[in-house]
Amino acid sequence: MPLFSTKRFHIPTHKSVETGGDAEGDAREGDGPQPGQINHAGTSSRFGDLLSPHISNSMMDLKRFLRPGAAATATPTPTTTTTTTTTTTMTVPGGTAARHGRRHTSSELQDETVAEADTKASTPRASTPRASTPTRSISSAEMNDDSLLESKYGQVGQIIGSGAGGSVKLIKRPSDGRVFAVKEFRARKDGETLSEYGKKCTTEFIVGSSLHHANVVETLDIFSNGPKDKYFEVMEYLPVDFFGVVMSGVMSRGEIHCYFKQLLLGVEYLHSMGIAHRDLKLDNCVMTEQGILKIIDFGSAVIFKYPYTPGITLARGIVGSDPYLAPEIVKHPSHKYDPQLVDVWSAGVIYCCMVLQKFPWRAPRSSDRNFRLYDMPDDEPHDYEQSARDHVKMKAGPAQEPESKDTEATPQPLPHHHHAKHGPYRLMRLLPHAARPLLSRMLQVDPTTRASVHDVTADDWFSSLPACTEVATSAAEHTTVRAPGHHHTIVRDGQPPLRV
Asked: Does residue 279 have an active-site annotation?
């Protein structure tokens, strides 16, 4: 029976059960905030202050907003208020996640979710993002009048997807014809106060709008309609469905590795900013038509580093989709965990999906036969590093026939090894030899021995992978720098795959 179901909407996804109060570290479901109203009169004073046009939507602001106690006792750091140009040529979605994996709570884990995910963070370390885009401040008038959305961006158009977090529509700006994605957040839940709801929506927006990297979607604006209880978030629109590209079955090995590197560089940037995504999956990756992959949907993101706070803050709660969940979340649902290592595990699963075109397991729990066998010790030891070196020598040998591009284009599973009945080698043997040393570290069931994103990006094989990137040529223009040796597959609804 195939493990990778093409019925994407039936992949179980989880969210943390939320409690009342400040909701400072609540775990949110992957689709993030949903439609509701921002009414400043009904929000806390801290919420109102955050929306002041005199305060920028910087990551420092967000962290102080969520952890006022930590900021109050710390030495203040000057913040610069800037205004951003909300125009862009690259197309990207900030709500495209809703297009694909509809989230719903798994009945098996529904009772195991935790009330709250603790999230603290510290001063972000230096990173190498795409040319920085100035952050923009929110005015109260803009936040509370959705007519400003249409006056600035035009008439909201067709729905391109929907999910538990809300719906995503297209909008075309009349002034220049540029297309954006508009996410209308889910309605406010029963028992959810206006303050709690408003904070969740604006937190996702501020997280997204504070991130500027070639492999992270650009979040541009937020609007609300107080009387109608609605929130709208404007993002870049990306037209290419990454899930569809993977399922096309025509990706070359070089293309797979290009996307893998782009994904991890985006994750590395998020972690450098003190943010873990916690819901990485094929559906939360989208593409430009030039082959640039971008991470979307920060509804489940948590801040694990706060200013002036030593160490990291562990997260808690089951969020995400079953096949991508890290095993420590499922095995000990009431325990706290390092959300960075959760992202690394999910990225490893994504790599397996790209190569195998199927999930390695339905969920990382003992009731799943494939995961149970993977979690067992290998019946004989395997040195992946030595195996990779031997494979390189074999390919370089004079008797090695040249490998055709057609063979390389569609990776084929290796013949079944009867001795590989259980253990990690059961999966690793199906992956490229060169990738096995790193993937075996990324998919360590024990998180204490799992590779960090820094370990991944410092790996020699990973560093050698050529990857395309996007470079800012101005505040609103970007160009794609193509890496050599591969093409990219573009898949549109109802159209055959196109190689670019």
From this structure: yes
